[in-house]
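Q: I'm teaching a short session on how sequence maps to structure, and I want students to see two examples side by side rather than one. Could you give me a first protein with its sequence written out and its structure tokens following it? Keep the formatting plain so it prints cleanly on a handout.
A: Of course. Example one:
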Amino acid sequence: MIRLKILVPTLLSVALASCSDSGGGAGTGQASQAQERPPTPVSVVSMEKGQFPITRVLPGRATAFRTAEIRPRVTGSIREIAFKEGSEVKEGDLLFQIEDDTYQAALAEARASVAKAEASVPSAEANLARYERLVNSGATQIDYENARVTFLQAQADVAQAKAALKTAEINLDLTKIRAPFDGITSISNVAIGNIVTANQAEALTTLRQLDPIYIDLTESSTNLLELRTAFESGRLSGDPRNAEISLTLEDGTVYPQKGKLDMAEMAVSESTGTYQIRALFDNPNDVILPGMYVRATVTLGEENGYLIPQRAATRNARGELSAKFVTADNKVETRIFPTSQVSGNNWLVAEGVADGDRLVVDGFQWIGDGATVAPVDSTVDDDGLVVQTQQGGSASEQAPQQQ
């Protein structure tokens, strides 16, 4: 019994010692593995100074180049609708024909009035000549003056009749309502047999010219002041009046035609703090329709600096641009850029970067300042995708494997 009491504590001591040795070995192994973990691979782009375009992406709406609400200028019944609704018409094409019987009759009456007035002129002229010969020798001065007045009145009657004839001709011609310019018609608001009145409030149809077409853009007054300062200082080169404008349509497709600046509103909205810019685009296939929402990329000029892809940059709490770089000893550091401009899918900065600096464009999400990394030379294509130029997996693919 005494021997059993001594044996049990001895076995417990041996077991505890064995557990202690096993735990220590595991901890040492983990520390060794942590020390041997390789640096995190990150994709980097070498910085190179150059002259790059300054761009602005602005929201906009399409508006017709010309718009006309077609209304009658004479009263009558609609006899014919000569166009297909929603179709293209040419300048001068007949749109509506108003019943013209009464206007034909008025024209005939006006022509008769002209003939009647012209018939009285010769006799009045002969009578005036006769009294002119007989004045002071059988005719008084009063007789001569009366003859003269009669002749002038006959001439005035002719002029009045001719003016009435011209009015009748115009009214008859106005029974044919024609397109004032090339365009696309809307739905007709009248039918054959409807009575219309001169200068009525309701339009018969609306005509819109869509080629070319206007794009109304909105820009903030703050950006306007910044750009004006950049141009005046010479930092930004180019003429903003010759700015190249490209469009992205509602479905994300890029419109093939380039536009040009047409005008800029010289006033700022008191409610929104923005001002209006109007651009002009060719629209030969009527792809852009009035009311469509578009995004316009306006190239304002060029500026010297370094491009930082938007995918590689973030904004801090103060709104300042920040990006991560790899130092000469392969350590990560964050740089802040208080001033930056938009250049396509990139930010353009002029300070805080030098030629040859290595910008982290992929893998920076999992690293902090001071971390040692393994830089992989890469480029960023036009779609913002990282393309590596040396052997090795992308940082975004390798980082999850290290978790």
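Q: Perfect. Now a second example for contrast.
A: Example two:
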Amino acid sequence: MNAAAGGKGLRILASVSPGEVRVVLLSGDELREAWVERPARPDGVGDVHRARVSALAPAMAGAFLALEGGETGFLPDGEMPGKRGGLSEGQGVLVRVSRAAQGGKGPRLTARLSAAEAALGPAEGPPKLLAQGPEAALRLARALPTAPVVTDGPALAARLRAALGEGRVVLSHQPVFDAALDGEFAALAEPEVPLPGGGRLLIHPTPALTAIDVDAGPVAGQDRAAQQRFNLLAVAESARQVRLRRLAGGILLDLAGLSVKQRAAYAEPLGKALARDGLAQLLGLGPLGLFEIRRQRVHPPLHEVLAGPLTPGLAALRQAVREDAAVPGRRLALRVAPVVLAALQGLPGALAEAEAAMTRKLTLRPDPSLPLAGWTIEEMPHGG
């Protein structure tokens, strides 16, 4: 880790780049949490809205509420303070987003607000966003009041200092993510997780569930004690990856090379590893020998955030800004696939932020020969 990330204990690092903020929680040099936020497209969790009841849904034990911008959220009866029910169509309600939208469904809402949230405005009136939820760095800082916060974004540092106090937030003049942390962060988008001593986890999210397969590799041919040590490592790393990637819904874990009876011995260590994550619960060992885990969804899983052409485009912009800072004054051109360029152009503010951060305007060149994740940065000749 670089100097900004050095030391022991819990630390929060927030890396700001065009169109994106990446935040990590480190314990020593171990990655504990990882967040990717695109400020132009927030997930909405924690937002406080003045909403209007658009339809009652007694069969679903709740109501659909219209939010500003035409979005519709769902308010369960159990999330109304006091006596359940009692809503009527057209009624105004103050609500907070408790779970991000998913799969074409709108966000989940709650009307159980703090006094400060309830004072943000009257319930009656047209739907309106009254306050945005806290960004990841602030959420982590509030949850961990002794952890220092280091960021390379001046505007973010100013917002955090206003909320947390001057002494707790450090503004770094160097990128807070070094190459090692960049690589570890990027690996969270990959399906394969290497395990110490050989073997790997294979993580495959689907719309219905996530499958985690433990591949023992060279350990499979070793003695039973080696296999036991390997599976204990696999159990701990599986629980860590579930939290890091914010996997949600049903999760099936398939350990390596064990009978169903032998696998039962790993229920206790798996349950303990998952207990560190307040959103995860071990349901048990199924008849097929698969551990069944359920994790509550609040924010979108990382694989949803990182899917598509925008992620490689923002990585390319980030690298272009770094190369300009290393040798200012050069004329740089960025070649990306056309679909990646379109994604960058469709994200409000990203290209303008890159231009503002560079000493000379970045030339963008669509290149149909490049794959989705491929891009190149070239130095243009003077006068070219």
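Q: What should students look for in example two?
A: Point them to this: The longest strand covers residues 48-57. Also worth mentioning: The chain has four domains: 3-37+135-184, 48-131, 190-302, 308-379.
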